[in-house]
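hiii so um. not sure if this is the right channel but i have a protein structure encoded as tokens and i wanna go backwards to a sequence. like what aa goes where. can anyone help
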């Protein structure tokens, strides 16, 4: 080996030794410490504080919820069991001639707690049991006061039906009894409008508004002290002051003209000394009468 070659080999060996020493020295130096930036620290601190606040709010809301639950439970128990929150007396107004104890019984409210009573149900029950009640207004005041204001059905017609009577209010509803003192139109009848036959005695639930209008219209023209009359065959009429009976049919069609015809016939009968028993103007173009022969 030449001197030149030997020198190159020695240099290579020295470089390897030097590199190994550097590796050993580097292994002894600890790794540099990575410092957190101020921004990174602040973000973590804010997240921690926010999470703590949420936990605190959750705990507070649970406490509030628990308190409200206890209060609501106490109030419910008070409404259910304390006598101050039960209906001990019920005021009935609007109708004098009613059995108030019976009204209170059917209301089903006496002795019941406030929360268990529905005013709408009471109204429905009373209207179903009492046909003479037109409306019922049920109000509840704190702590446990109830007022039931009744509105009575006012009859406008009294129908004498072969000895038995029923009444008809302004809506056409048939009432089996009436405690009203209001003046009514009295009708003496052997039947009723719409009856399938003269022997039928099943009372209708309602009279139509047309029939009611006819009764009211004719009731205005009935001679004072005379009743309105209704028969299955001839309809409505009355006894005149001249002691004969006149019929106008089952409705009030052409009533003004028929009344003028009555006046003309009254003069004719008087002038000719005719005493009729019955006059029918049901068909104004074909009137007829029956009279007594001397």
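sure thing!! here u go:
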């Amino acid at each position: 080996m030449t001197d030149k070659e030997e020198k190159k080999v020695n240099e290579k060996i020295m470089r390897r030794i030097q590199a190994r020493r550097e590796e050993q020295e580097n292994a002894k130096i600890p790794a540099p410490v990575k410092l957190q930036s101020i921004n990174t620290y602040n973000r973590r601190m804010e997240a921690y504080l926010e999470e703590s606040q949420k936990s605190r709010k959750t705990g507070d809301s649970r406490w509030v919820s628990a308190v409200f639950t206890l209060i609501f439970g106490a109030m419910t128990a008070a409404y259910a069991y304390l006598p101050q929150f039960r209906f001990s007396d019920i005021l009935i107004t609007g109708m004098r001639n009613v059995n108030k104890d019976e009204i209170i019984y059917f209301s089903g409210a006496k002795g019941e707690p406030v929360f268990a009573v529905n005013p709408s149900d009471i109204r429905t029950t009373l209207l179903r049991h009492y046909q003479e009640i037109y409306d019922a207004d049920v109000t509840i005041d704190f702590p446990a006061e109830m007022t039931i204001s009744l509105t009575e059905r006012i009859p406008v017609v009294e129908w004498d039906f072969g000895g038995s009577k029923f009444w008809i209010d302004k809506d056409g509803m048939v009432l089996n009894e009436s405690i009203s003192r209001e003046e009514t139109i009295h009708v003496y009848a052997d039947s009723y409008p719409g009856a399938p036959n003269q022997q039928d005695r099943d009372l209708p639930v309602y009279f139509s508004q047309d029939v009611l209008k006819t009764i009211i219209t004719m009731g205005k023209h009935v001679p004072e002290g005379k009743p309105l009359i209704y028969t299955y065959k001839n309809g409505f009429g009355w006894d005149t002051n001249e002691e004969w009976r006149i019929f106008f049919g089952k409705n009030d069609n052409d009533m003004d003209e028929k009344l003028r015809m009555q006046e003309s016939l009254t003069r004719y009968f008087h002038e000719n000394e005719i005493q009729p028993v019955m006059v029918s103007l049901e068909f104004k173009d074909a009137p007829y009468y029956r009279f007594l022969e001397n």
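oh and The CA atoms of residues 160 and 188 lie 5 Å apart.
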